[in-house]
Each structure stands twice: as C-alpha cells, then as structure tokens.
Design brief:
alpha/beta; single chain; five-stranded mixed sheet; Glutaredoxin; globular; 4 helices; 109 residues
Amino acid sequence: MASDKILYLTDETFETEAVQATSPVLIDFYADWCGPCKMVAPILDSLADKFDGKAKICKVNVDEQRKLSIAHKVMSIPTLLFMKDGEIVERVTGALPQATLEEKLNNLL
C-alpha cells in the first residue's frame, strides 16, 4: 500500500517542497508503466514511513511533469535524486536495494 507520506511534486511545488526543504529530500523520477519503478515503489513507501519527520520522500511522474524531467536531465527511469540544502548531492539510476537507499539518506541527516 502506498504511503501517505510520499509527496508528489509538480512544476508548481518542486521549488518549495524540494529546493527549499530544511531536511534531506529523495526524489524518484518515475512512470506508471516502468517495471523497475514499480520495484522501487514499495521501498520508497517504507522509507517514507521510516524517515518521517527526518527526510522527505518525493516522486515526480515523468509523463505528467515533462519540464521537471527535462530540467533535471532525466534520461532513464527510475532516476533518484538526493538533495540537501537545495543542492543535488547524489543521483542514481535504476532500482537499488532498500539498505543502499537508507544508507544514502542517513548520510545526509
């Protein structure tokens, strides 16, 4: 079941929710039809619950938010961006294990 703690970003909300965030942010650029994206989804739900109040877990639908995808040079999905203090500190592509994503988030706290 999808976590209600995941934020879905749009052109209108990206700046305030991700760039101006006071906590680390993990952004998943995904599409509903993408197999590896579907593999990452339950991991992100779990991370959203685990890091609630410590980090933001966000998603950007590349089909609906084309400008954001182009602005962030997303060529393949899933692409995960890790942000801290408004800066992208790491970018990974593909489905990674939960432990790897947790470690990356913990390193930003």
